[in-house]
Every structure is written in C-alpha cells, then in structure tokens.
Amino acid sequence: MASEQAPPALDGSPARPRTGGGTALTPPGGTPGLVCLGLSLAAFLALSLLGPSLVQPALGGSGPPWTFHVDPAPGPVLALLVAGILLAGLGLALCFRAAARGWSPRPGLLLAAGAVLAAVFSLSPPVGSSDHLNYAAYGHMIVSGLDPYVTTATDLGDDPYGDAVQEWRDTPSIYGPLVTGVQALAALAGGDSPRLTVLVLSLVNGLAFVLTGLILHLRTRDERARLRAALLWTLNPLLLYHLVAGSHNDVLGITAAVAALALFTAGTGGAWRAFGTGAAVGMAVATKFPAGVVGGGPAWRLLTRRRFGELAALLAGAGLVVAVGYGLVGPHALDRVREAADSISLANPWRLLAGRDGGVLGLDLPRSFVSAGSLVLLVVLVWLLVRALPEADPVLAVSAALVLAWLFAASYALPWYDGLGWAVLAFLPWSRFDWCMLARTVALSLAYLPARDPRLAGLPDGLHWLVTGVRATVMPFVLATVLVLLVWCCLRRPRPAPAL
Predict the structure, then answer these.
(1) Cα separations (Å) of 328 from 182, 280, 335, 422, 436?
(2) In 101-130, which ranges are continuous DSSP H helix?
C-alpha cells in the first residue's frame, strides 16, 4: 500500500499522485524492479557456488566455505556476471522510479532480505577479485610475528598463505591498522588454513554490511527514508556483490563512517558525543584513509557555530584512535598510502591524460599535473555539491559532498570504493545524484571484468580486449561522461550554500 505522501521526484521536485477524473490512482509498484534485483543477486550467487572460475580464485583445502566444482568456461561466467551487473542497474533504476511515484513497500522486509543475502554471500567463496587472499596473508604475517607493512607474500616462502596469494605478491599491506587487526584475528582463528581465515574475514565483512544497513534503518522513523536506505544499501546487488560476495574490507571503514554521522546527527550536542563521533571517524581513517572525509561535515558544523570545545573533543577522539592505531603498527604504515596516492587506475578519467602508456589521448602529462588537477577538481566539486545536494541536515550534505567529490576526483578508483558514496547518499533525500552514482558504479563494475590479473584468472587470449579495450580505453571516456553528468546536475539548479 502506498504511503500517504509520496517521496519527491528524482529531480528534487515534490512528487504528485497521478489522478484520473479527480480520483487518485494507485502509484505504480516496484515489482519489476525487485524481480530484476532478485535475478541479479541469483546470478552473483551462482558465480560463487559454481566453484573456481574466471571470477573466483581457488581457495585450496577443504571445509567451509563450501561450493560446487563445476569448472565453468570463461565465456558463460562473463555472460552471467555482465547479466548480473546490468540487471542490478536496471532493477535499481526501476525501484528508484517507482519510489518517486509513490511506491512504498515495507522497508523492514527489504532490510531482512538484505541481511539474509549478506549472510548467504558471507558463507560462500568470495568472487570478483583475489584480494581476500592478500588479506589472509597479511593477517598470517602478524600472527607469525612479521610486519605486513614490510613483508610480502613472496617473503613468506614455502607457506600455505604465501602460496595462496595470486596478485600483489611483492606488495606490502596498504591497509590501516584496524583492518590489519581484523586480519590478524581472522588468521588466528584460521590457524594453518587460509580457507578458514578467508571465511572468518567474509563473516566479519557481512556482519559490518548488515550493521551499516541497520544503522541507516534505525536513524530515522520515516518509512520513506528507510525504503531509500534499503534500496541504496542493504538490498543493493552491486554492493552485496562487491563488498560482501567480494569480501572487500572497505565495508569496515564505511560502517565506522556511517556510525560517525548517525551519532553526530542524533539528539543534542555535547563534548562526549563529539568525542564519540571523532573516535568513529578515527576508526574509518584507521581502516582506509579516505573514509575519514565524512568527518568534514561535523567538523565544519562545530567550527562555523564556534563550538570550539566540541570541535576539540571531535579532533581529540579522531586523533586518539588514529594515534593509537598507527602507533601500534608504526608510522611506516603510511608509506604505501602515500605511494598509492599517485597511482592512476586503468578505467579512471585521468587516464585520458596520463598513465604508464602515456594516457589514452597520448598526452603523457606528468603525474604531478594529475595530482594537482585532482586536488583542484576535488575543491570545485565540493563547492558545487554542497550547493546542489538535496536539502537535508547540512552536516550530512557537507559530508556527502566531500565523499562524492573524492570519489569522482581521485585518480584511482575501483568499483567497491563506491560503497562509501552509496552509504552517505542514503542519509539524504531522493535526488538526481542517485542516478549519477548508479551510472558510475555500473560502469566501473563493467570495467573490471574480471577484477583479477587476466593471466592468473585464465582469461582467454580472445577476450583480452576486455582489459585493453573496454577497461583501459573505453571506460575512461564513459566515466569522464559520468563526471560531466555530475557537474551538469550540480549546475542545473544550484541553491545557496547551506547555513551551518
């Protein structure tokens, strides 16, 4: 049954019920969208249960997570993955459109369905990349008394964890101390079995994903906002695939970031609330550095309202967590973060201008230009987004602007990075920016088919054009177009900057 008041249309204007002869008609439902979402999720689950394939590295050993061993050919696997991504995009688009016209299912049911699916994916072998094997190896290093920020998989020698790693074999950990701690606990539970360690890591990620959805659900009693949170996060097949089925640890930082925003915007102010918010922001930073940008919204609110005591508490909370975390692992853990900051991913729009091969356009601009240009673009996007994002709590608008600006301006981007963007958007009302995010994540997902080294994954020679053609040549143009779309959405109807 539709709610009494429909959510706003996707262009930000109030929605109006359709009428015929003066009588309101029932708003169109989102059943077709939910069917597409279900088919998408079924495709992703099938990829996991079919066993080792182009998108699923072999775990080795026996025991959970269990799967079949169908040995599927690369062609059908890619077709199933593409179908899952496209159905996810179509399903979300149909649900967005239906919600804008007044469709209002029970958000609690969607939340429960997403939680069950997260549990199922957590108990299935990871798909979509081989990063989880690196996570397990880094945890094993800690348990073995080694420093993962210096040691590599190659250094482990004849070791089941070192042998399991496929990509980044000569690369130390780039992750924050909180992630390293989780990896160490998982390896401690897994013992000599990388397979069991991966299962523990997947379960932690699944729990974090569900917790994030629950925070988004509980932060408001507005059913329309809860529906939005369920669609953008909990039942979003793209996020379930990349963050849960893919077992990417980005979800840990997202959970901390969402908790920080929910805490700060709940109830009345106070130094202890500011300190707790800062601690949550510090946990996000200690997971992956960029996740800490969500702290910009609370900090800006306290600064502009001259609540300097609370601002000091916020900074103290964040600083304490970050200092303790990096103090335990050593400041050299930041070295890899600094090195990675200059990288340019293959599908990124900045690759049009620069890259190892001189860039798609052959301009071969220096990396310093890309770094400076990325920073300038970041500032411009923040200014545009703060003025254009839908009206909501200004704290949330500023934090969302910072996150989206970082995602679209950064020179290195992978599809699972977008999880943070979806999470902060779930705090805001419906808007055209949902479509920008959908277009970006679908494009990035299609760009990384598969998100593994083609040689190690067994990609046939006849399909290498997926990397050299689609990912490295076509997608930089596609994502540049999405960036232009984002700017156009900002300029289409700017509004005064929010009074903080």
Answers:
(1) 14, 18, 15, 32, 40
(2) 107-122
Cβ atoms of 294 and 212 within 8 Å: the answer is: no
Q: How many CA atoms lie within 13 A of 238 on its CB side?
A: 34
What is the secondary structure of 288-347 as a DSSP string?
Answer: -GGGGGGGHHHHHHHHHTT-HHHHHHHHHHHHHHHHHHHHHH-GGGGHHHHHHTT---TT
Pair 277, 314: CB distance under 8 Å? yes
Contact 367, 354 (CB under 8 A): yes
Residue carrying the six token digits 């600083």: 319
Alpha helices in 410-495 (DSSP H): 419-425, 433-447, 454-457, 465, 475-492
| Nearest C-alpha neighbor of 201 from the set 175, 237, 170 | 175
pTM: 0.92
Per residue in 167-214, pLDDT (tens digit) is: 989 999 999 999 999 999 999 999 999 999 999 999 999 999 999 999
H or E stretch including 227?
helix 223-229
Sign of dihedral through CA atoms 15, 18, 23, 25?
A: negative
The predicted-structure confidence for 270-301, as pLDDT tens digits, reads as follows 899 999 999 999 999 999 888 999 999 999 99
* Amino acid identity for residue 35 in this structure: V
